[in-house]
Design brief:
alpha/beta; 5-stranded parallel β-sheet; globular; 350 residues; TIM Barrel
Length: 350
């Protein structure tokens, strides 16, 4: 095995929380069971994608609240919550509440920018302010200040007989600000995240700099290094980086599952051949095969070489039993092949 002295410190997984629109409760319950399984298998973290007007989790904060009461150790995060859809003050309240319920296990990952397909929803999302909403870094800076407990107004104290008011977002959850992550896809945003005290989520979708060689692994490596440069200059010594690629180990998969998984990868592979669109969007190739084969590919990946924690993304459209098999193989075979050891609990699926 290549680089056997390198160890993976933290192992997580990411799910979209897919559901059938005719039976959405079953899909949400499946997601909660998958998170419970992740804790049993020793995963360090479980992350939820944030989807609006789609058939995936639209309220990861609510799902994390539910998951926090069915688990005791595994960290729970969002990768990512697009702040263009959110009121930063209200989101800060919700996340602090859930973090307290979870005992300090919440890792909010956010991004900024105009909401996806904004023209189709702007007048419902912001009926009076659609033309003046600020989707710049300033929006995430406001959110971070609220989470950190900085004052939002001058007024505080008692009013009347029983009403007590605060000048900051309540409840306040100590340590949550240090667990904020930013989903960066360019060198500029990665360096900004490091300079502003965020941790970095680097996913399977990135944008290269102008004239940069269109090699996904090398571009991701350069972005992670830009983040660390920004963090170092800002004195953010505890800055963390997590890489998120799609991996599909087939060690214990049935023949039918292997065929299904390969079809999924084959359908998605053409988009990785060249940069897409005016900004040159790049997609990482899905990694499929035995855990040993995937580990060899990861050790050779320039982006993976920069990190000691990952949040492997589960494929979007698989079934519950497929996710059980994939997570079990990641925890039992791929993780150990990368030098990782389970955080605790039993390795057998329930």
């Amino acid at each position: 095995m290549p680089q056997p002295d390198r160890t993976l410190r933290k192992l997580g997984f990411l799910t979209i929380g897919l559901f059938d629109p005719l039976d959405p409760a079953a899909g949400h319950e499946s997601t909660l069971q998958i998170i419970e399984l992740g804790e049993q298998l020793g995963f360090d973290s479980a992350w939820l994608r944030h989807r609006h007007l789609q058939f995936g989790i639209s309220s990861p904060v609510a799902v994390m609240a539910a998951a926090s009461q069915r688990t005791s150790r595994i960290e729970l995060g969002t990768a990512v919550t697009p702040l263009g859809w959110e009121n930063p003050l209200r989101l800060a309240e919700d996340l602090a509440t859930v973090d307290l319920l979870a005992g300090g296990r919440i890792n909010p990952g956010v991004s900024v920018g105009e909401p996806m397909q904004y023209d189709t929803v702007r007048h419902e999302l912001y009926p009076d302010t659609a033309d003046v909403e600020d989707f710049s870094y300033a929006r995430v800076e406001r959110f971070a200040r609220f989470v950190a407990g900085e004052p939002v107004r001058e007024f505080s104290g008692k009013q009347g007989v029983v009403e007590e008011f605060s000048n900051r977002v309540e409840p306040f959850s100590a340590g949550l600000r240090e667990r904020l992550w930013y989903g960066a896809a360019s060198s500029k945003s990665a360096e900004w995240a490091g300079s502003n005290g965020f941790n970095l989520l680097s996913s399977s979708v990135i944008f290269p700099d102008k004239d940069q060689e269109p090699d996904f692994a090398l571009v991701q490596q350069s972005q992670i290094r830009a983040f660390r440069k920004g963090a170092a200059l800002a004195g953010h010594t505890g800055a963390r980086v997590s890489q998120g690629l799609v991996v599909i180990p087939t060690d214990s998969a049935s023949p039918a599952q292997r065929e299904k998984y390969q079809r999924y990868v084959d359908e998605r592979t053409p988009r990785t051949a060249a940069p897409q669109g005016p900004r040159g969007m790049m997609f990482a190739a899905d990694l499929i095969g035995t855990s040993e084969e995937i580990a060899e590919q990861l050790y050779a990946h320039a982006g993976f070489q920069e990190v000691d924690e990952v949040a492997f993304a589960l494929p979007f459209s698989f079934d519950h039993e497929d996710y059980v098999q994939i997570l079990t193989d990641i925890a039992g075979k791929l993780g150990p092949a990368l030098g990782w050891a389970p955080a605790g609990g039993d390795r057998q699926a329930s």
